[in-house]
């Protein structure tokens, strides 16, 4: 199977019982402006585009939400504990994007989707959640062209400053995604 459209991504996730179980679990928290993002979505697409029959390991499941009224880090840990009780084998990570600007030393995010748009790579700037009818909703703030074409490049936000590009370059080296997904094209400062 080759993925080319957002609809195909949505169907792919809807047909994946494991992913749907995780989405339903996250939805049960009733968090404002919540999404499961980054590697959860990206890795599924890359696995399919590489023809893998077995899911690659994901180091963590990133659940994000946006709540200005209660932005303490301890609240995030409480949500993680609830998720761990529901699905203990999952490496949950819960982050309130209303406080993450201070961690990332950037101007405040206005929503979870705004935060996703400022992730380092376009292929990672993806999120999914469930609507009231448990239908998958996808956000792809920079489109899906890069992720489905196995291209890793910085988001415009990271291209904007040399300091951010350095973070992008270091992240690419550390992640070393090409060991797992050997068809990836990594775009760096020198390749533009």
Order of helices and strands: HHEHEHEHHEEHEHHE
Query: What's the Cα radius of gyration?
Result: 16 Å
* Spatial shape: globular
Helix content: 40-55%
Biggest sheet layout: 5 strands, mixed
- Share of residues in strands: 5-15%
Q: Structural class, please? A: alpha/beta
Average of the residue pLDDT scores: 94
What gap, in angstroms, lies between the N and C termini? 30 Å
Please report the total strand number as a whole number. Answer: 7
Number of helices, where a helix is a run of at least 4 consecutive DSSP H or I residues: 9
Regions with little confidence, pLDDT below 50 for 5+ residues: none
Strand order of the largest sheet: 3-2-1-4-5
Summarize the structure in words.
This protein has 192 residues and is an alpha/beta fold. Helix content is 42%, strand content 14%. The protein contains 9 helices and 7 strands; from the N terminus they run ααβαβαβααββαβααβ. It has helices at 6-14, 17-27, 39-49, 73-86, 97-104, 112-117, 145-148, 156-159, 162-175; strands at 35-37, 61-65, 92-96, 126-130, 136-140, 151-152, 185-186. The protein has a 5-stranded mixed beta sheet with strand order 3-2-1-4-5. The chain has a two-stranded parallel sheet with strand order 6-7. β2, α4 and β3 (92-96) form a beta-alpha-beta unit. The longest helix is centred in the middle third of the chain and has 14 residues, at 73-86. The model has no long low-confidence stretch (mean pLDDT 94).
């Amino acid at each position: 199977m080759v993925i080319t459209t957002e609809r195909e991504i949505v169907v792919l996730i809807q047909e994946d019982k494991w992913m749907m179980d995780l989405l339903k679990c996250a939805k049960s928290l009733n968090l404002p402006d919540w999404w499961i993002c980054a590697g959860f979505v990206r890795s599924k697409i890359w696995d399919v585009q590489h023809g893998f029959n077995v899911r690659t390991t994901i180091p963590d499941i990133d659940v994000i939400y946006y709540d200005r009224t209660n932005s303490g880090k301890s609240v995030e840990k409480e949500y993680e504990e609830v998720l761990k009780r529901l699905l203990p084998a999952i490496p949950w990570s819960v982050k309130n994007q209303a406080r993450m600007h201070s961690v990332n030393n950037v101007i405040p995010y206005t929503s979870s989707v705004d935060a996703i748009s400022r992730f380092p790579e376009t292929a990672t700037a993806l999120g999914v959640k469930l609507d009231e009818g448990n239908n998958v909703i996808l956000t792809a703030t920079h489109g899906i062209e890069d992720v489905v074409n196995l291209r890793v490049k910085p988001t415009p936000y990271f291209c904007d400053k040399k300091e951010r590009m350095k973070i992008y370059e270091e992240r690419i080296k550390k992640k070393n995604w090409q060991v797992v997904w050997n068809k990836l094209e990594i775009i760096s400062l020198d390749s533009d």
